[in-house]
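User: Earlier you gave me the apo prediction for this protein. Now I'd like the version with adenosine-5'-triphosphate bound, so I can compare the two side by side. Same sequence as before, with the ligand SMILES added.
Assistant: Got it. Here's the input I'm using:
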Amino acid sequence: MTLKIENLTGGYFGTTVLKDVDFTVNDGELVGLIGLNGAGKSTTIQEIIGLLTPYQGQILLDGLSIREDAETYRKKIGFIPEQPSLYEELTLREHIEVTALAYDVAPEVAMSRAEKLLKTFRLSDKLDWFPANFSKGMKQKVMIICAFLTEPSLYIIDEPFLGLDPLAINDLIDLMLEMKKTGASILMSTHILSTAERFCDKFIVLHEGRVIADGDLAALRVKFNLPEASLDEIYVALTDESWQAHG
Ligand SMILES: Nc1ncnc2c1ncn2[C@@H]1O[C@H](COP(=O)(O)OP(=O)(O)OP(=O)(O)O)[C@@H](O)[C@H]1O
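And here is the structure of the complex with adenosine-5'-triphosphate:
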């Protein structure tokens, strides 16, 4: 799956947030979307999943735009939001069933995929519980399970590590790497740069709604003349206003 964002300008009614954003997530790539608070990461994600409509430019999934075929476009994406959003009146089992229905996954296939995921995230004994009453981390795990059981070709994950315990973070990373091997692409926004540095194939650095850097760690080190620097150090240098002024 290839996600192509071309010259995207967009935002909220009356407010332009993203300016001429351009980047690609290729087949089997895990890409980190990084930037300061307010840089435009969540806005970019909302444009990709179709909650916002670009003012200019386009977003293509394997060449398909949401305008051409919204249902096919949406089914290609598994989205894990920063804040878990769950149905008050549905049990965990029913969340799995509703997700399977929405993504046209046969119920028995969904349940067999879910069983593996429930075991991984230690929720197997909670199938008949109501996730609305779960802890923050457990709710996040439900969102992860629902996204992964559809086996989409593109995962969009907003701040995946917040609220997860260290075991769950490792399990989620393992799952992402497993899906990547099958050719799925992943775009993940995160502030946890040390983890991003270890696992992402490349980085898109957003600053004030613009892409100020795009590439793997080696390319960023060369581009900004910071040999040996960590992603954290490069990032601090990139977002430094004096660098912006003279860079
Ligand atoms: N619903 C909205 N209406 C108007 N402006 C918004 C809305 N949501 C976000 N913004 C603005 O868009 C800009 C980018 O916000 P966004 O949430 O995309 O940043 P972010 O990079 O995801 O930040 P964070 O790291 O804090 O999650 C900010 O200036 C914010 O005030």
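For your comparison, keep in mind: The chain has a mean pLDDT of 94.
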